[in-house]
Specification:
The chain has helices at residues 2-19, 31-50, 56-72, 78-86, 89-101, 104-117, 119-142, 159-164, 186-201, 205-224, 230-275. By secondary structure, it is an all-alpha fold. The protein has one domain (55-254). The longest helix has 46 residues, at 230-275. The N and C termini lie close together (11 Å).
């Protein structure tokens, strides 16, 4: 029984040491565990975000505070941008597509590609997204904000619901959606993370320009579709850069320290197993 316990410890340390290797490129069966854990992490993020959505009065008060702040800075241009979008069916379709499909679906695709081709960049992207998502959850809980689409008296029109029938308020989406999770805008923040990681990951101009184009379009789309204020995007960028900073620290300091510890534990477990078969 004791021998089987030592064998299990060796396997666990060996597994953890292998999966944290920054230069690993090959795929293995235990990669399914990694994908499953990341999927669970994002599912937990959406469930927790959807669970803190019951403070209507505070959310509308915070929205008015943001509007007054932007007005004092001469930056409350969201009604004009939303109307400019509504004046063209092409712009409506474009920004609806960008907002809905060039967010999480695109991130999943890029993440899987990096997982297959460049594990270090994937790890950086994964950590930055999850860490910034954790920061964002704290803000959603402490600072709920009603998005522009909830203020039709100011002329805002929810383009996703009105023209593409993509309502985030659908009953089937209720467990995952917080209508007051406007600050920070992770549509902007995560597009910024993707752009930076893609820029670091490849020297090729096409993917770099593509990532920058998505960031630019997403920054416009969040306002054009009446889902966010400019303030939300600025805070989203700041929160995401903070998450990226922690992820970079993990790459350069956290994971190497963890691997050194795991290597020492693995050698000790192997030695114990060899002397006490």
């Amino acid at each position: 029984m004791e021998g089987s316990g030592r064998f299990v410890r060796v396997k666990i340390y060996s597994y953890l040491h292998e999966v944290t290797a920054p230069t690993r490129t090959r795929l293995a069966w235990f990669d399914l565990i990694e994908i499953g854990l990341v999927a669970f992490g994002f599912l937990l993020y959406f469930l927790v975000r959807g669970a803190v959505a019951d403070r209507d009065e505070q959310a509308f008060q915070n929205a008015q505070w943001i509007i007054h702040l932007q007005e004092s800075l001469g930056l409350f241009v969201e009604p004009q941008i939303n109307q400019w979008t509504l004046d063209s069916s092409l712009r409506v379709r474009l920004f609806n597509f960008v907002y809905f499909w060039l967010d999480f679906p695109l991130i999943v695709g890029i993440g899987l590609l990096m997982f297959w081709r460049q594990r270090t960049s994937y790890t950086l992207l994964r950590d930055a997204l999850l860490i910034s998502g954790g920061f964002a959850l704290l803000m959603y809980w402490s600072f709920p904000v009603a998005p522009p689409r909830f203020l039709p008296d100011l002329g805002f029109v929810d383009t996703l619901e009105q023209f593409d029938n993509l309502s985030y308020q659908a009953q089937s989406m209720a467990p995952f959606v917080n209508p007051y999770a406007a600050v920070p805008s992770l549509h902007v923040g995560w597009a910024l993370i993707v752009a930076i990681v893609v820029y670091w990951a490849t020297p090729h101009a096409v993917p770099r320009l593509g990532a920058l184009a998505v960031l630019l379009l997403q920054s416009i789309a969040v306002v054009a579709t009446a889902n966010h204020y400019i303030f939300d995007g600025v805070v989203g960028a700041a929160v995401s850069l903070a998450g990226l900073g922690v992820a970079v620290w993990l790459q350069h300091h956290g994971y190497p320290a963890l691997r050194r510890w795991l290597h020492a534990r693995l050698r000790a477990a192997q030695a114990t197993a060899a002397t006490n078969p």
